[in-house]
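RECORD TYPE: inverse folding
INPUT: structure tokens
STRUCTURE:
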């Protein structure tokens, strides 16, 4: 159907309360296909099945939460908090250990993720790359791609051949969950990522056109887009050959403005960037594919003054969100994705050199899956966009000003329906109070009539006129509309603001209504001449104002909720209508059967429960248990007793440690005959082969892409040996240690970055070691070298930076080269994936796995922690522990390590064989590592194996690690254990 503005108005008439969310279609856990849907757009918004859908999306990366059951937890938290979409990257390296090998099973089950998102009622924006950046190793490129002739991010046929292989595999999964097929909720698909190189030449055009054609050929029929790195007007509609776009290509851009600056006017109506405003793309909706919701932090924590992600969250708090995201709405952004909304964990060898293990990002949902106060504005705005369709179609309206210079006003209006929206921002460091002329159905009025309109310091709010609240017309409100739910017996509307804010709401009432304040404080005045009811209140918790009569036979219950009350106010759609719940920490699902409403959700403490349910509901269950309720005057069902909070979680002390030292590779007599001889003479690396070296030493060329790598060389005669010079490249905080005939020569480390995005130059070094006189003499002698490679660089500049060498690059003894053998990771763990393990002796031998025989006969000793030793090299500590968390408690648990920061050592943390991160004691800033449920058995036995690499320059060893409770709620989702294969005797 051709959509004209007229048919459109009809489709989004007041009766069309909620937007076309997939909720209803996927309410049942069984995956039932529904009829195909259409996904189109115009200059205002995305249009799904003919309805406008402003997308309020949050970014999360399935690969940063290696426990598929918990995907549902986080997705439900997004949905409950007002998001209607989730945007995801797919990281090529996570799914491909070798060319031609693709794995979408287990923790890599992308199909399961997409199915869960659809079941949760979230649309999906799919961003599979092939390049993603994302602070992951090589920006998502698989390690093996470094050792090919491929010129990445270009039209090079070798590269495109690999890309096609990957896209065929990933698109086969995505295609199954396209909303247009009726089998999923993927509605948008991104090509590449911030591709700012070769924008105008054949290389870039050829590449992007190839991606476009390939993705279409793979059956992806939803609108495609690219995320321009800033509003540069790159890859706008019209970039692809005539006839191929057919109205199915959108323009999007990314923005990460400084939280300390003034929110930029980027967007459809905006001015920012070389292609500001509509000039970039007049016929597509304002679309930010990524807008900063936090930021990342490098080793050492330079970005946030060593305070870590808590500081990212503090500097990009709820006020930041309101100021920046409402400014985005004011600038016509209708597809809004916040990067990140749940950051998660860069576990194993996923982190790019620019980040450490935690990718918490300061996001609205923290790494431990806790809902933070940053969700509150998201919930308020997301619900508003979903509940008030007028806001999906807004034009810029006449400029207007408040009577306070501290308040900047944006004015927008719906062209068809007469509603007006005013967004008021205060960038000053003082609270502001103002009045504002607004356009209403009763002419221009200066509001509020009583008192002032408050805009807090560094804050923003949206107020509206001429909206419909179910069956009643709202003349204006100086509170921010959050939700409306027309019901058979009464209409409900929720208005929000900061605690203490004075708010004024005026309804049109033909006759004098009966007004009852059921809870909280509010005053009302009826103006018989103007036929208006004015309600004033200072927001404090949840005030309930019931308006009866006044020209409508259906009462209106007005809920005035401050942020604190709004944080526990949840709405869900059921087949009988909208359900509104107040009290618990989270409402996950609401299903009606007959007169029973089954609710599931979380409580973080004993909580009240009040439910406004559709007509006919008489009984309520909460997490399967009947709740004793009574009816209230406000039409709700109120629990007579509080819902229980979580039972206490007791975490055991970690005892029973066993210890073994390793690095036998350092010993002169170690048998390295099975190791690969470094005999290659050419490489595809961007690092030039150093002059005078007989062979390539780069680890990638020998197939060792992740984690540690060992080198051994034999020296026939060292009578005169003086200096061993070892050049290496390993990324920020990479490390090299060397031994001569089993005796340590020392350790060299690459620097701690001084800012989040460090330069490449500091990530290589040449370590020189003097050969001790007593170790010289006729040979043979052995040199052993361990290199901790921290990751491949990203490739933001499209210059194959990800191919710069890792490992030893050159080695000379008094200027003469040596001949080496190399050993890294022993194959790929099929279950845990290619990024789980590196090449330590213990990793090659299964010391990290559950069930490894760590008893005395095998060289392991009991040890009491803290344990101190000064020894260059690798030691392992293993123990098991049992957890017995109540089955209905979702406990998020971490492992904490803290020690004297003068001690130079680092620890790789293996839980049940999964590499959950790296701790660097003398660098930080991370001390607590999230152990995701599913990998962590919260009711059973777990194996912890810690691999300690010590510089040998200071005392090292291991402090007493502790389990830390990071969050606990009664509720959660059922968690299926993640397969964690144990040790098998060779
Ligand atoms: C963007 C990029 C993302 C991520 C982000 C910073 O420019 O597209 O992948 O790297 O920056 O976290």
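DESIGNED SEQUENCE:
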């Amino acid at each position: 159907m051709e959509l004209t503005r007229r048919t459109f108005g009809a489709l989004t008439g007041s009766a069309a309360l909620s937007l076309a969310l997939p909720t209803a279609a996927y309410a049942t856990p069984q995956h039932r296909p529904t009829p195909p849907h259409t996904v189109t757009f115009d200059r205002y918004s995305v249009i799904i099945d003919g309805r406008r859908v402003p997308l309020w999306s949050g970014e999360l990366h399935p690969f940063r939460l290696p426990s598929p059951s918990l995907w549902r937890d986080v997705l439900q938290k997004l949905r409950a908090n007002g998001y209607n979409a989730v945007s995801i990257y797919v990281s090529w390296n996570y799914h491909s250990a070798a060319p031609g090998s693709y794995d979408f099973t287990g923790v890599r089950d992308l199909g399961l993720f997409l199915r869960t998102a659809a079941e949760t009622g979230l649309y999906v924006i799919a961003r599979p790359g092939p390049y993603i950046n994302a602070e992951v190793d090589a920006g998502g490129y698989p390690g093996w791609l470094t050792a090919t002739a491929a010129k990445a991010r270009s039209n090079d046929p070798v590269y495109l051949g690999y890309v096609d292989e990957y896209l065929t595999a990933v698109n086969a999964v995505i295609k199954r969950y396209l909303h247009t097929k009726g089998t999923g909720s993927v509605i948008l698909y991104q090509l590449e990522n911030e591709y700012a190189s070769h924008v105008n030449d054949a290389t870039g055009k050829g590449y992007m056109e190839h991606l476009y054609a390939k993705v279409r050929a793979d059956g992806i029929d939803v609108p495609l887009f690219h995320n321009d790195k800033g509003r540069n007007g790159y890859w706008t509609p019209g970039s692809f050959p005539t006839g191929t776009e057919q109205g199915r290509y959108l323009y999007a851009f990314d923005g990460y403005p400084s939280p300390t600056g003034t929110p930029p006017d980027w967007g459809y109506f905006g001015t920012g960037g070389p292609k500001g405003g509509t000039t970039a793309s007049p016929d597509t909706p304002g679309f930010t594919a990524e807008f900063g919701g936090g930021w990342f932090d490098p080793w050492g924590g330079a970005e946030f003054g060593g305070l870590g992600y808590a500081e990212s969250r503090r500097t990009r708090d709820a006020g930041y969100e309101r100021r920046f995201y409402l400014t985005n709405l004011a600038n016509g952004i209708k597809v809004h994705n916040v990067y990140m909304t749940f950051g998660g964990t860069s576990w194993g060898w996923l982190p790019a050199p620019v980040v450490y293990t935690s990718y918490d990002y300061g996001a609205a949902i923290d790494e431990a899956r806790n809902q933070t106060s940053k969700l509150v504005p998201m919930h308020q705005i997301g619900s508003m966009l979903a509940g008030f369709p007028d806001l999906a179609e807004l034009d810029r309206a006449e400029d207007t000003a408040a009577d306070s210079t501290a308040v900047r006003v944006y004015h927008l209006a719906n062209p068809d329906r007469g509603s007006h929206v005013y967004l008021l921002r205060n960038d000053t460091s003082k609270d502001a109070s103002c009045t504002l002329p607004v356009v209403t159905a009763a002419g221009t009025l200066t509001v509020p009539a009583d008192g002032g309109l408050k805009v807090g310091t560094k804050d923003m709010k949206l107020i509206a006129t001429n909206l419909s609240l179910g069956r009643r017309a709202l003349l204006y409100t100086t509170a921010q509309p959050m939700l409306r739910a027309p019901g058979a017996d009464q209409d409900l509307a929720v208005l929000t603001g900061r605690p203490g804010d004075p708010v004024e709401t005026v309804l049109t009432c033909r006759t004098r209504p009966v007004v009852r304040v059921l809870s909280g404080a509010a005053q009302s005045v009826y103006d018989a001449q103007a036929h208006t009811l004015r309600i004033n209140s200072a927001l404090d918790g949840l005030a309930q104002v019931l308006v009866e009569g006044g020209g409508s036979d259906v009462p209106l219950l007005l809920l005035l909720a401050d942020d604190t009350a709004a944080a526990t106010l949840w709405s869900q759609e059921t087949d009988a209508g909208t359900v509104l719940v107040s009290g618990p920490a989270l409402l996950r699902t609401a299903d009606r059967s007959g007169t029973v409403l089954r609710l599931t959700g979380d409580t973080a403490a004993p909580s009240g429960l009040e439910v406004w349910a559709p007509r006919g509901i008489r009984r309520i269950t909460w997490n399967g248990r009947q709740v004793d309720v009574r009816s209230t005057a406000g039409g709700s069902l109120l629990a007579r007793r509080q819902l229980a909070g979580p039972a206490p979680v007791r975490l055991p002390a970690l005892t029973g440690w066993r210890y073994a030292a390793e690095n036998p590779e350092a010993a002169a007599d170690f048998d390295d005959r099975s190791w690969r001889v470094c005999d290659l003479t050419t490489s595809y690396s961007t690092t030039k082969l150093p002059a005078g070296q007989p062979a390539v030493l780069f680890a990638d060329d020998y197939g060792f892409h992740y984690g540690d790598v060992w080198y051994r060389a034999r020296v026939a005669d060292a009578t005169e040996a003086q200096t061993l010079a070892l050049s290496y490249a390993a990324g920020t905080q990479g490390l090299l240690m060397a031994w001569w005939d089993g005796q340590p020569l020392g350790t060299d480390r690459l620097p701690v970055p001084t800012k989040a995005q460090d330069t490449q130059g500091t990530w290589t070094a040449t370590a020189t070691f003097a050969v001790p006189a007593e170790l010289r003499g006729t040979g043979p002698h052995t040199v052993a070298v361990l290199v901790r490679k921290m990751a491949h660089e990203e490739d933001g500049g499209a210059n194959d930076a990800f191919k710069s060498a890792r490992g030893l690059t050159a080695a000379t003894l008094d200027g003469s080269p040596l001949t080496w053998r190399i050993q890294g990771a022993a194959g790929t763990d099929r279950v845990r994936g290619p990024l789980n393990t590196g090449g330590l002796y213990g990793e090659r031998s299964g010391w990290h796995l559950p069930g490894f025989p760590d008893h005395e006969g095998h060289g392991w000793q009991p040890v009491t922690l803290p344990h101190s030793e000064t020894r260059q090299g690798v030691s392992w500590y293993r123990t098991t522990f049992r957890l017995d968390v109540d089955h209905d408690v979702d406990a998020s648990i971490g492992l904490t390590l803290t020690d004297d920061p003068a001690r130079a050592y680092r620890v790789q943390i293996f839980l049940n064989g999964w590499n959950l991160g790296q701790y660097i004691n003398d660098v930080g800033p991370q001390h607590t590592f999230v152990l995701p449920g599913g990998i962590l058995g919260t009711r059973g036995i777990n194996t912890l194996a810690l691999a300690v690499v010590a510089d040998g320059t200071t005392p090292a060893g291991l402090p007493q690690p502790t389990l830390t409770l990071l969050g606990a709620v009664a509720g959660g989702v059922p968690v299926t254990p993640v397969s964690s294969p144990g040790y098998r005797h060779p």
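NOTES: The CA atoms of residues 569 and 972 lie 18 Å apart.
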